From TrEMBL:
<dbReference type="Pfam" id="PF00201">
    <property type="entry name" value="UDPGT"/>
</dbReference>
<keyword id="KW-0808">Transferase</keyword>
<dbReference type="GO" id="GO:0035251">
    <property type="term" value="F:UDP-glucosyltransferase activity"/>
</dbReference>
<protein>
    <submittedName>
        <fullName>UDP-glucuronosyl/UDP-glucosyltransferase</fullName>
    </submittedName>
</protein>
<dbReference type="InterPro" id="IPR002213">
    <property type="entry name" value="UDP_glucos_trans"/>
</dbReference>
<comment type="similarity">
    <text>Belongs to the UDP-glycosyltransferase family.</text>
</comment>
Length: 452
């Protein structure tokens, strides 16, 4: 191979990577790890016991467990999440100890850098103390990164405390957004734990040696131009789903029995519904989703993971006979393969950034819901800027659900949305081709890490 000499040399350099232990953060980190391994670097993955990765899926990586937390710990809550990752002195000490051992033992393969999830903000001080460059993987969009960096300004101008009568008003500093989008991020004041977490993340990202986004230039070029000057670090946009699928890093068992059913459905007819690994709904909302899917008269594949419905185990609140012959309900699905299937016509998503990018890469238009965090920002961007989705922004009512499904899959307006989704897919394809923006960004990142 033409690249063999370069690859052989690079295999003598090691990168240490530290993903946040949640599905939406693990997937892009492992996609990046596979990409860097393919470019010749050795990879060590640091991980927690909570949501530990399936090590057997990655025999080419070295794994080290740190932060000896209870893998059966309480179920995810936002307050617990912020509490755990704000008060991180114990985490910092454990990481520093492990990194010292790795740096001392890797004489044949010197460590080039540490790459961590942006939310592991405490890792910057640890890396600095060891003179180890730290790069940040930001698992959201460039757009949301900019908004998050402006949270103190948005708070100072009172957006987070406005009452519902202002919900539809425009955010002056971010004309794309409505007040309700900003409020849905989930911050009550700059003193709450979530705001503190975001503030620390932004501060330590600015202090890092570089930012890597799961995105591509053609999607967010105008946003790149708006990244504040106080992010004085190299920036890399890499379209991960076009290089490696995320299925091997799934924390849940994927239902493969769905494909014979999908194969029997008409082309571009199926509504694929999945709200990610953390979102939850009330039972009333759950039933509205179910009835909306039935009212749409379209075939549907609905992912309902255990715990998705608050105060419920799984499907016990569904009406008798649901889903009938038209639908399938599963606990978890191989999302990349479902989106790539010719029967899939629209993806109803929680607007997590990984799911959004996977849908774009397969040319599948979206119905966008959102729950918290960056999701309302992503949903707004897909519906109002990229225009490859429709934002279901006023709650979950069965009539609205059925209407928007048919709007995309059946109505004339849907044809325009579907065409735009295909155009954006083509741009994504071109981005990873030789000479494309994402391809060039990969090579620039490899050269940059090699120079550290």
């Amino acid at each position: 191979m033409e690249n063999q000499p370069e690859t052989t040399v690079r295999r003598h350099r090691r990168i240490i990577m530290f993903p946040l232990p949640f599905q939406g953060h693990i997937n892009p980190m492992f996609q990046l790890a596979n990409l860097l391994y393919s470019k010749g670097f050795s990879i060590t993955i640091l991980h927690t016991n909570f949501n530990a990765p399936k090590i057997s899926n990655y025999p080419h990586f070295t794994f080290k467990s740190i932060l000896d937390n209870d893998p059966e710990k309480r179920r995810f809550l936002l307050a617990d999440f912020a509490q755990d990752f704000i008060h991180t002195q114990d985490h910092a000490d454990a990481l520093r100890h492990e990194l010292k051992l790795l740096l001392a033992s890797e004489k044949d393969e010197p460590v080039s850098c540490l790459i961590t999830d942006a939310l592991w903000h405490f890792t910057q001080s640890v890396a600095d103390s060891l003179n180890l460059p730290r790069l940040v993987l930001r698992t959201t969009s460039v757009h949301s990164t900019i908004v998050y960096s402006s949270i103190p300004l948005l708070h100072a101008r009172g957006y987070f405390t406005l009452d519902d009568s202002h919900s539809e008003e425009q955010v002056v500093e971010f004309p794309l957004l409505k007040v309700k989008d900003v409020k849905k991020i989930g911050i009550k004041s700059t003193k709450d734990l979530y705001a503190e977490l975001i503030g620390n993340m932004v501060k330590q990202t600015k202090a890092s040696s570089g930012i890597i986004w799961n995105s591509f230039k053609e999607l967010e070029e105008t946003e790149l131009d708006r990244v504040p000057d106080d992010f004085p670090v190299p920036r890399f946009l890499i379209l991960f789903p076009k290089y490696f699928k995320a299925s091997s890093s799934s924390l849940q068992e994927q239902d493969q029995t769905i494909f014979p059913w999908l194969d029997q459905q008409p082309t571009k007819s199926v509504v694929y519904v999945s709200f990610g690994s953390l979102s939850q709904v009330e039972e009333k909302e759950f039933l509205e989703i179910a009835h909306g899917l039935v009212y749409s008269k379209q075939p549907f594949l609905w992912v309902v993971r255990m715990g998705f419905v608050k105060n419920s185990t799984w499907l016990e609140s569904l009406p008798e006979g649901f889903p009938g012959e038209r639908g399938r309900v599963v606990e978890w699905a191989p999302q990349h393969e479902v989106l790539a299937h010719e029967a899939t016509g629209v993806f109803w998503t929680h607007s997590g950034w990984n799911s959004t990018m996977e849908s774009i890469c397969e040319g599948v238009p979206m119905i966008c819901s959102s729950f918290w965090g960056d999701q309302p920002l992503d949903a707004r961007y897909m519906s109002d800027v990229s225009r490859v989705g429709v934002y279901l922004e006023n709650g979950l009512q069965r009539e609205d659900i059925a209407s928007v499904i048919r709007r995309i899959l059946v109505d004339e307006e849907g044809e325009e949305i579907r065409e735009r989704a295909q155009v954006l897919k083509q741009k994504a394809d071109e981005s990873v081709m030789k000479g494309g923006a994402s391809s060039e960004s990969v090579e620039t990142l490899v050269d940059y890490i090699s120079s550290l």
